[in-house]
Write a structure and sequence with these properties.
CATH superfamily: Metallo-dependent phosphatases
Number of helices: 8
Largest sheet: 6 strands, mixed
Helix content: 25-40%
Mean pLDDT: 93
Shape: globular
Low-confidence stretches: none
Number of strands: 11
CATH class: Alpha Beta
Structural class: alpha/beta
Radius of gyration: 17 Å
Number of domains: 1
Strand content: 15-25%
Distance between the termini: 34 Å
């Protein structure tokens, strides 16, 4: 019995090695799991379910084979792929969860999320996040032709990279107060998230009790996966071969 958690794969045409590792992971590991949770940023960028590429079709096929094998797959939007919608979900058989979700892991109530909402010191990003998650903004973007969305995505990515170069590690990481606030809100002692690309298991105290925050790593360097069984939570790193 095991449940798997991954995040921040950032799949793209420019990194076929990550896509190959993902498909191998689905075929060799996830197929034997009770469930697979993908906590956001599955893709480097997603401009709409109507875009058809060889990469997208590979991922859809891999997920469909897994869900057809009766392994449930759950997905939470990240900051790169929040436009993934029900068309993708139907094609793959996955279930899209809300951005904050409680899951029962072998008797323990656990909060899962992507993690970007915890980075409250990054005021510029949080402002954009609030706008981009609104239904009207997404409806407008998705109404644009694909080539226009491509340009918007490329410009947004370039501006994000430039902005992040001038942000301190402190600003780009989660804030302790927000972590505790969310765990108190949902009455949990365990939180699992991604986004920061800093895999670790942090011990803390919430509601005067021992608690932990488990951070998933990325797949650029770490090949991170959290393996949860009735007895343990093991954060595994399987780095990709050097190109």
């Amino acid at each position: 019995m095991k449940t798997l958690f991954i995040a921040d794969l950032h799949l793209s045409e420019s990194r076929p090695d990550i896509t190959a590792a993902f498909i191998e992971f689905i075929r060799d590991q996830a197929v034997n799991a009770d469930a697979l949770y993908v906590l956001g940023d599955l893709f480097e960028v997603w401009i709409g379910d109507d875009e058809i590429t060889s990469l997208n079709q590979q991922v859809i096929s891999a997920f469909k084979q897994l869900t057809d094998h009766a392994v449930p797959v759950y997905f939470i939007h990240g900051n790169r792929d929040f436009l993934i919608g029900q068309r993708f979900a139907k094609a793959t058989g996955i279930t899209i969860l809300p951005e904050h979700h409680i899951v029962d892991l072998y008797g323990e109530k656990v909060l899962i999320m992507h993690g970007d909402s915890l980075c409250t010191l990054d005021l510029a990003y949080q402002k954009f996040r609030k706008t981009s998650r609104s239904w009207w903004w997404q409806a407008f973007i998705l109404s644009l032709p694909l080539f226009v969305r491509h340009k918007i995505g490329q410009n947004a990515r370039r501006k994000s990279q430039q902005a992040n170069m001038h942000k301190s590690d402190n600003i780009m990481d989660v804030t302790d107060d927000e972590v505790i606030a969310q765990m108190q809100k949902y009455q949990v002692q365990t939180l699992i998230h991604g986004h920061t690309h800093r895999p670790a298991i942090h011990q803390l105290e919430v509601n005067d009790k021992p608690a932990k925050r488990i951070v998933l790593g990325d797949w650029y360097e770490q090949g991170s996966c959290l393996v949860v069984t009735p007895e343990s939570m093991q954060l595994e790193n399987n780095p990709l071969p050097t190109l």
